[in-house]
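Q: Got one fold?
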Amino acid sequence: MRTELPNTRPHTSARPSLTPPSLRRLLVQL
């Protein structure tokens, strides 16, 4: 999953506020 996250959102460091919600959504879907 860690490999797909950076690829899907390369601007994670640019928008740290949008990273937590996106990660939670991915985990919920899985």
